[in-house]
Design goal:
heterotrimer; A alpha+beta; B alpha/beta; C mainly alpha; A: D-Maltodextrin-Binding Protein, domain 2; Dipeptide-binding Protein, domain 3; eight-stranded mixed sheet; four-stranded antiparallel sheet; 26% helix; B: alpha/beta; 12 strands
C-alpha cells in the first residue's frame, strides 16, 4: 500500500512549456487481449514485450529524474526504490516481471504453509544462498527473522509493517527486539504465529522488501544509531549489490544521494539458487536533470533507460517517433476525487452519486495525457488485480451514475433532487473546501473537478498546494475536514484486493491525530465489517470474490468519484532489451533486462 | 605680433580655428586667433568662461582631436605645425617639450595611483630610464616645487595632499621632462587666495630657473597682471585686444577690457563705489551676434556695429598693441579717461560727447 | 584597517545567526511536512512518530531547539542530519561544493573577460554600429531565461542529443580530481549559459562606467602627459571604471554560489543549488537549512571581501 509521488516541479513544467498535451492517438485496435486497456498498435506492455533478446554482459545506464527515497530494505517503500531493491535484495517471495498475482518463492524454497486455522505460517528457505561481501556467509532463517523484527525498530521506521504484521504475536508492542510470534526452529525454517487468522494477508505481504534477510551480527550496530545506518552499509542477496568498500560502506561509493548509484554483480550470488537471469554486469544510475533532456538522451542514446516517469512531452515524442522504445504498463494505480463521507454535504449518498455522475472523467484523463496513459475508472479494483472482472471489469457496475464517462448533468440533477433539493441544484449554504496539488496535470484536474461541483450548485473554495503538503496537512487530516480532494491516488503493494481497498476505504483505520490515507474519511459500518471479514478469507479465488463484493458495495455507496486507472509509460534506448515489471508500474527490471 | 624676446617665437599660433559639431549646431569655439610666445616669457590669455581660451590651449597639444572637431590654421612649435602633425609625433611632444597644468588638481590627478607613481609614469613615457632613476627624478621635482619631505610624500595619494600641495605636484609632473613651454590653464582658480599667491610665485621662480615659456590662461586679471609679460584678451572665440601687460593695464583700448578692469573690486576705492559688471552674458558660440560679437553688451555700440565685423588693428602709435574695435581711437581714449576716473559707462558716454545710441 | 576588518567579520557572524534564526523559524511555521512523519513514512504509527519526535528533539521549546542547532553549527560545524538521504548535511554540502564552485568560478572568468572586453570596446566607440550591435545582443542575452538558454544549447550542441554534436551533454560532469579533461569539456556549455546573461550585464556596466570615466579630468591629464592611448584607456580609464564593477562582481559570485540551481538542474551538475532544490521538494529541511546557511555565508563573506577590496581598490575610502 503506497502511493506514487510523481514530483513534477512547476518550474520544469513551465520551462518545458508542457501544458496538457493531448496524446489522444487512441486509434487502432489494441494488441493486448484486453480490449478495454486501449493500448494502441505498436506499443509494448509488460504482457506482450519480449522477455529477452539481448546478450549477457555490459553496463546499463539509468537516467532518473528522482532520487531514491530509502535504500534500506526495511524502510524502502517507493516505486522508484524498488528496482534497485529487488535487484540487490531477495525477499521471501517476489514476482516475476509479468505476474502480479502469483508470487514466486525467492529466498523461500516453496510456497508458505498455512495452517487450517489461519494462525500459523511456516516457510522453508533455500540452502546455499550467501550474503555479499563483506559478510559472505550463508543466509539463515535467523536473518529473515531479524529482518522482520527490525521493521518495528523506530530507527528503521518501516512504514507498513503494522498494517500487515499486527496479527503476529508480539509485533504490536515490539520495538526492534526479538518477537514472540517469530520463531526459527532450525537454520532453514521460519514460523510466524498469529493471534488472529490473518495468515493469508501476512503471507501475501512477504513480497515486500522487509522480508529480505539482514545479517544480525553485522547490522545490529548500524541499527543502533538514530536513524539506522544499515542502508548505507547494506549487504545484498540478489544478483547485484550496491558497490561498496571492504568495510561494507555503500554511502559515497555505491550511492551518492541525489547524484548517482552503481550496482555491480554480487560475487556471492549463485544462479543455481535463483530464477533471475541477471544478464547485465553493471548498472550505473544517474540522478537528476531536466526530464525533457533525460528523455531525449535515453531515446536517442545507447544502452540507456529512464526508470521513473518520463515527461509528458517525451511520452508524446516517443509515441510519435520511437514507438518501439516505449512501454505502457497497466497496474499503475488509480486517481480519484475523494469526497468527505463523514462531514458536510457529502454525508448524503445521493449527493455523492450526483457528483460521480457530474464529473467528466474523460476530461480529467485528457489532462493527464489521454488514452495512452489512462483508462476511464468505473470501480475501485483495477485491471490485473484479482477481483477486477468480478467487480465489473472495464464497464463497471451498472448504475446510471456510472454509465457516462463524460459526465451527465441530467443524471446528476436527478440525484440532487433525491437528496432533497427540488431544483436539481444544491442550495444549501455550505461552501466546500477543495484542496488540490500544484503542478501539471494536477492543477488542471483540480479545476475540472471543481467546475463539476460548481455546476451542481456548490460554492467552492479551491486551494492548490504542494503535493506533499496536501497529503500531510490537509487531505485525510480529520481536524481539517476538507470536503473534496481531487488529486489523490493509490497504488497497491501487491496483487490482492485488500491491498487496493483496505487502507483507502476502511473506516476502522482512521486516526484522529495525524494524516490518513482514507482521504474521504469513508466510514460505513457495513463496509468496515465486510473488510474485517474479508481480511481473513483464505484462497486466491475466495479472496478475489470477497473483495470484489466490497468493491461493488463501495460503488453502490459512491464513496468517491473515480476517473483514472493509470498506465505508466517507460522509455528505453533502442539497443536495450527492456523487461518491465507489471507489479511495479512497468519499471525496467535490472534482473531481466539485457543489452543488444 | 607682440613680445620682444629675441629670436623667433617658440610657439606661434596662426589663425587657429576650432569648431565642434553638436546636435544644436556648430560651436565656433576658436574663431581665428593668432598669438605667439617667446622663450623665457609669459603670455597671459584672459577671458570669461566660454571664450575659447582653454580650447586653444588644448588644441595646441592635440587634445581636441578625435572629438569630431575640425581644426584650421597653424600652430607652429619650433617650426613644426602641430595641427597637421601625426599622432605619434605629437604624443612625443606632449608632456615632454610642451606640458600643461590644469585647473583642478584633485580631479586631474588619478585618485588611485600614488603621486610619485604618476610622476614616474610621465617620466618613463618619454625617457628610457630605470624605475629607480625615474623615482629619483620625481622626488627631485617634488622638492623643487616646494613640497616638504618629498621622498615620503611621493608614496602618498592625491587626496592626502592639501589643495596647494596638489597643484605643486601637478606642476612638478608637468616639469619632469624639462618642457620648453608650459601651458597653465587656470592654475590657481581652484585654490584659495593665499595659496594662489604661492603658486604664482612658484611658477615665476621656475621660469627664471628653467628658462621656459609660459602661457597662463585665466579669467582673473589680477593673475595676468602678476605673471604675464604680454596679454591677449579673448572674447567669443576671438582675440579682441593684445598688448604688453603694462600697456594693457594702463591704457586698455577695448570696451570689453574696460569692463573687465572696472569690475574688479579694489580695496583702495570708496565704499560707495558700485562695482560695474559687464551687463549681459557671454554669447552662444553657435549663433554668435552679427557684426561685432561684443556689440550687444557694449555700452558704446553704434548702429552699424551690428553689421561690421572688426578686425585686429594696431593702435596708432603703439605697434605692439592691437585691438579689434570699430570705435574711433580718439573716442576710445576719451572714454577710457572718463572711466578710469571713476565714471560709469553712461556718464563716460555723456562726457565724451557721444549721444547714447544703443544698437 | 585591521579594526575595520574585525568589525566587518563580527557583523558577519551576527548576520549569519540572524539568517539561521529566520530559516529555522520559517520551517517551523510554514505548512511543510512534519519531519517526524517524513522519517516515519506513510503508514503512520503514532507510537513511532512520538519516538522520532523525541529523538529529533521536536518536543522541546522552539528556543531550545534553536539553541541546540546553533551550538551544533558554530561549535561543531554540525549542520544536522538529513533523514531523507540518510547522510550528514555537512557531508552532503561539502561533497557538492566543488561542482558549484567549478561552475560559478569558471562562468565568472568567462563573463568577466567577455563582458569586460565587449564593454571596453563599446565604450571607446559609443554609438558606433559595433556598439549598438553588441549592446543589442547584450540585451537579448540578459532577457533570455537561463533555463531556456540551457535547453537550447543542449538541443543545439550537445554530443548526445544536439543538432551539431560537439560538446558533452547533460549529466557528463566529472570532478576535476578524477578527470581534468572531462571536467573541463563537460563544463563548457554550462559555463556559457552562466556567463551569457552575466556577460551581457557586465558589458553594459563596463560600458557605462568606462564612458563616464573617460570623461574625467585625469584622463585628459594622462593624455597630456603624452601616454600612448592604450595605456590611457587601460591603466587610467579601466582601472578606475572597474571599481564599481568589482564590488558588484563579488556580490554576484557570492549569490550565485548559493543559487545556481537552474543551470545545475538543466545540465545535471551535482552542486549545492540542486541539492537545495531537491531538498525543498522533499521537504528535507535540515538540508535546506544547511544550504541556506552556506549560501548566506557565501554572501556575507562576499560582502566582507567587497568592503575590504574596495578599500584596497579605492585609496580614498581607507581613511574615512
Amino acid at each position: 500500500m503506497r502511493w506514487i509521488r510523481t514530483i513534477v516541479p512547476a518550474l520544469l513544467a513551465l520551462a518545458a512549456g508542457a501544458a496538457a498535451l493531448v496524446l489522444g492517438a487512441c486509434g487502432s485496435s489494441s494488441t493486448s487481449a484486453d480490449a478495454g486497456l486501449n493500448t494502441p498498435q505498436g506499443v509494448l506492455t509488460p504482457a506482450n514485450e519480449p522477455q529477452g533478446g539481448g546478450h549477457k554482459g555490459g553496463t546499463l545506464t539509468v537516467l532518473n529524474h528522482q532520487d531514491f527515497e530509502h535504500i534500506d530494505p526495511g524502510t524502502s517503500y517507493f516505486s522508484n526504490d524498488y528496482e534497485a531493491m529487488y535487484a540487490t535484495q531477495r525477499p521471501l517471495y517476489s514476482y516475476t516481471p509479468n505476474d502480479v498475482s502469483t508470487p514466486s518463492p525467492d529466498i523461500a524454497e516453496s510456497s508458505p504453509q498455512i495452517s487450517s486455522d489461519g494462525k500459523n505460517v511456516t516457510i522453508h528457505i533455500r540452502h546455499g544462498v550467501h550474503f555479499s561481501p563483506p559478510v559472505n556467509r550463508e543466509v539463515t532463517s535467523a536473518d529473515v527473522a531479524y529482518a522482520l523484527e527490525r521493521a518495528a525498530n523506530p530507527n528503521v521506521a518501516n512504514p507498513y509493517y503494522l498494517g500487515y504484521l499486527s496479527a503476529v504475536e508480539g509485533i504490536p508492542t515490539a520495538s526492534g527486539g526479538p518477537v514472540a510470534g517469530i520463531k526459527t526452529p532450525n537454520k532453514y525454517t521460519i514460523e510466524l504465529h498469529l493471534t488472529e487468522p490473518k495468515a493469508q494477508l501476512v503471507a501475501a505481504s512477504l513480497v515486500l522488501p522487509y522480508s529480505a534477510p539482514v545479517p544480525v551480527e553485522y547490522a545490529k550496530r548500524f541499527d543502533a544509531s538514530k536513524p539506522s545506518e544499515y542502508g548505507n552499509y547494506q549487504v545484498a542477496t540478489g544478483p547485484y549489490m550496491f558497490k561498496n568498500n571492504s568495510e561494507g560502506k555503500v554511502l559515497g561509493i555505491g550511492y551518492q544521494p541525489g547524484k548517482s548509484a552503481v550496482l555491480v554483480r554480487n560475487p556471492n550470488w549463485k544462479a543455481s539458487t535463483d530464477f533471475r537471469p541477471a544478464y547485465l554486469d553493471q548498472i550505473n544510475i544517474q540522478i537528476g536533470g531536466d526530464t525533457n533532456v533525460i528523455g531525449r538522451q535515453v531515446l536517442e542514446g545507447s544502452h540507456m533507460v529512464q526508470n521513473d516517469p518520463p515527461a509528458q512531452s517525451i511520452v508524446k515524442l516517443a509515441y510519435e517517433k520511437y514507438r518501439s522504445q516505449l512501454e505502457i504498463s497497466p497496474n499503475a494505480g488509480d486517481h480519484y476525487v475523494a469526497i468527505n463521507n463523514s462531514k458536510g454535504p457529502f454525508t448524503n449518498v445521493n449527493l455523492r452519486k450526483a457528483y460521480w455522475a457530474a464529473l467528466d472523467r474523460e476530461a480529467m484523463n485528457k489532462a493527464r495525457g489521454g488514452s495512452l496513459v489512462t483508462v476511464p475508472m468505473t470501480h475501485f479494483i483495477w485491471p490485473e488485480i484479482p477481483g477486477f472482472q468480478a467487480a465489473g471489469g472495464y464497464a463497471g457496475p451498472k448504475y446510471d451514475y456510472n454509465e457516462h464517462p463524460q459526465g451527465n448533468m441530467a443524471v446528476a440533477e436527478k440525484y440532487v433532487k433525491l437528496a432533497g433539493y427540488p431544483s436539481g441544484k444544491y442550495t444549501g449554504g455550505k461552501t466546500l473546501t477543495v484542496v488540490g496539488a500544484t503542478g501539471n496535470p494536477e492543477a488542471e484536474d483540480a479545476q475540472i473537478a471543481n467546475q463539476a461541483l460548481n455546476k451542481l450548485g456548490f460554492k467552492t473554495k479551491l486551494t492548490l498546494v504542494d503535493k506533499s503538503v496536501m497529503y500531510s496537512k490537509y487531505c485525510g487530516v480529520v481536524s481539517e475536514a476538507i470536503d473534496v480532494c481531487p488529486n489523490v491516488g493509490w497504488v497497491a503493494d501487491f496483487g490482492d484486493g485488500q491491498a487496493v481497498l483496505n487502507v483507502p476505504f476502511n473506516g476502522k483505520l482512521i486516526v484522529t491525530n495525524g494524516s490518513n490515507s482514507n482521504w474521504g474519511l469513508v466510514n460505513h459500518q457495513k463496509i468496515n465489517e465486510a473488510m474485517t471479514a474479508a481480511e481473513k478469507v483464505q484462497g486466491k479465488e475466495a479472496r478475489a470474490k470477497a473483495w470484489a463484493d466490497i468493491d461493488r458495495e463501495l460503488v453502490a455507496e459512491a464513496v468517491a468519484a473515480p476517473y483514472d486507472w493509470d498506465k505508466q509509460p517507460q522509455i528505453r534506448s533502442q539497443d536495450v532489451a527492456g523487461v518491465g515489471d507489471l507489479w511495479n508500474v512497468g519499471s525496467w527490471d535490472y534482473n531481466y533486462t539485457s543489452l543488444k | 605680433m607682440n613680445g620682444e624676446g629675441g629670436g623667433p617665437p617658440l610657439l606661434r599660433v596662426e589663425d587657429l580655428r576650432v569648431e565642434f559639431p553638436t546636435e544644436d549646431g556648430i560651436v565656433h569655439a576658436v574663431d581665428g586667433i593668432t598669438y605667439q610666445v617667446h622663450r623665457g616669457r609669459t603670455l597671459g590669455i584672459v577671458g570669461e568662461s566660454g571664450s575659447g581660451k582653454s580650447v586653444a590651449a588644448l588644441t595646441t597639444l592635440g587634445l581636441t582631436r578625435g572629438q569630431g572637431a575640425s581644426i584650421g590654421g597653424r600652430i607652429l612649435f619650433e617650426g613644426r605645425d602641430l595641427v597637421t602633425l601625426a599622432d605619434r609625433e605629437l604624443r612625443a611632444i606632449r608632456g615632454n617639450e610642451i606640458a600643461i597644468v590644469f585647473q583642478d588638481p584633485l580631479s586631474s590627478l588619478h585618485p588611485f595611483y600614488r603621486v610619485g607613481a604618476q610622476l614616474i609614469e610621465a617620466i618613463r613615457a618619454h625617457r628610457d630610464v630605470s624605475s629607480a632613476q625615474a623615482r629619483e627624478r620625481a622626488v627631485e621635482l617634488l622638492g623643487l616645487v616646494g613640497i616638504p619631505d618629498p621622498r615620503r610624500r611621493a608614496d602618498e595619494f592625491p587626496h592626502e595632499f592639501s589643495g596647494g600641495m596638489r597643484q605643486r605636484a601637478m606642476i612638478a609632473m608637468a616639469l619632469v621632462n624639462d618642457p620648453k613651454l608650459l601651458l597653465a590653464d587656470e592654475p590657481t582658480t581652484a585654490l584659495d587666495v593665499t595659496v594662489q599667491a604661492q603658486i604664482l610665485a612658484l611658477l615665476e621662480r621656475l621660469q627664471r630657473e628653467l628658462g621656459m615659456a609660459i602661457v597662463i590662461i585665466t579669467h582673473d586679471l589680477g593673475v595676468a597682471a602678476e605673471m604675464a609679460d604680454d596679454v591677449a584678451v579673448m572674447y567669443a572665440g576671438r582675440i579682441v585686444e593684445t598688448a604688453p601687460a603694462d600697456l594693457l593695464f594702463s591704457r586698455p583700448e577695448h570696451p570689453y577690457t574696460w569692463g573687465l578692469l572696472n569690475s574688479i573690486p579694489t580695496l583702495a576705492g570708496p565704499r560707495e563705489e558700485r562695482l560695474v559688471p559687464i551687463p549681459g552674458a557671454p554669447p552662444s558660440l553657435i549663433r554668435r551676434p552679427s557684426g561685432c560679437h561684443f556689440h550687444p553688451r557694449c555700452p558704446y555700440a553704434q548702429p552699424d556695429h551690428a553689421r561690421i565685423d572688426p578686425r585686429l588693428q594696431a593702435v596708432p602709435g603703439t605697434p605692439n598693441h592691437h585691438v579689434a574695435c570699430l570705435l574711433e581711437p580718439r573716442m576710445r581714449q576719451r572714454l577710457w579717461e572718463q572711466l578710469s576716473s571713476g565714471r560709469s559707462p553712461d556718464e563716460a558716454l555723456a562726457a565724451a560727447g557721444v549721444s547714447e545710441v544703443r544698437g | 584597517m585591521i579594526r575595520y576588518i574585525i568589525r566587518r567579520l563580527l557583523w558577519g557572524v551576527v548576520l549569519l545567526i540572524a539568517v539561521t534564526a529566520i530559516v529555522f523559524l520559517l520551517f517551523r511555521v510554514l505548512p511543510t511536512a512534519d519531519p517526524a512523519k517524513l522519517r516515519a513514512g506513510r503508514l503512520q504509527n503514532p507510537k513511532i512518530i512520538a519516538e522520532i519526535r523525541a529523538d529529533l528533539g521536536l518536543n522541546k521549546s522552539l528556543l531550545s531547539q534553536f539553541w541546540i542547532y546553533l551550538k551544533g553549527v558554530f561549535f561543531h560545524f554540525n549542520l544536522g542530519y538529513s533523514y531523507y538521504s540518510s547522510a550528514s548535511v555537512r557531508g552532503l554540502i561539502f561533497e557538492r561544493l566543488p561542482a558549484t564552485v567549478s561552475l560559478v568560478l569558471g562562468g565568472a572568468v568567462l563573463w568577466i573577460t567577455g563582458g569586460m572586453a565587449v564593454g571596453i570596446l563599446s565604450a571607446l566607440r559609443p554609438r558606433s554600429r559595433g556598439d549598438r550591435a553588441s549592446m543589442g545582443g547584450a540585451l537579448l542575452l540578459v532577457s533570455a531565461p537561463e533555463y531556456w538558454l540551457g535547453l537550447i544549447v543542449l538541443y543545439l550542441f550537445a554530443s548526445d542529443i544536439g543538432q551539431v554534436r560537439i560538446f558533452p551533454g547533460a549529466g557528463s560532469y566529472t570532478p576535476l580530481t578524477s578527470d581534468p579533461v572531462k571536467w573541463f569539456t563537460s563544463l563548457l556549455l554550462p559555463w556559457f549559459v552562466v556567463a551569457a546573461a552575466n556577460a551581457a550585464i557586465y558589458a553594459r556596466l563596463m560600458r557605462s562606467s568606462l564612458i563616464e570615466t573617460m570623461g574625467q579630468d585625469y584622463i585628459r591629464t594622462a593624455r597630456a602627459k603624452g601616454l600612448p592611448e592604450r595605456q590611457v584607456v587601460l591603466r587610467h580609464g579601466v582601472r578606475a571604471a572597474i571599481n564599481p564593477i568589482m564590488t558588484i562582481l563579488a556580490l554576484d559570485i557570492g549569490v550565485l554560489l548559493g543559487s545556481a540551481v537552474l543551470v545545475e538542474t538543466v545540465f545535471n551538475i551535482p552542486g549545492i543549488g540542486r541539492l537545495n532544490y531537491d531538498a525543498i521538494t522533499h521537504s528535507d529541511f535540515p538540508i535546506v537549512q544547511g544550504t541556506v546557511l552556506v549560501a548566506a555565508l557565501f554572501i556575507i563573506v562576499a560582502n566582507i571581501l567587497v568592503d575590504i577590496a574596495y578599500a584596497y581598490l579605492d585609496p580614498r575610502v581607507r581613511y574615512s
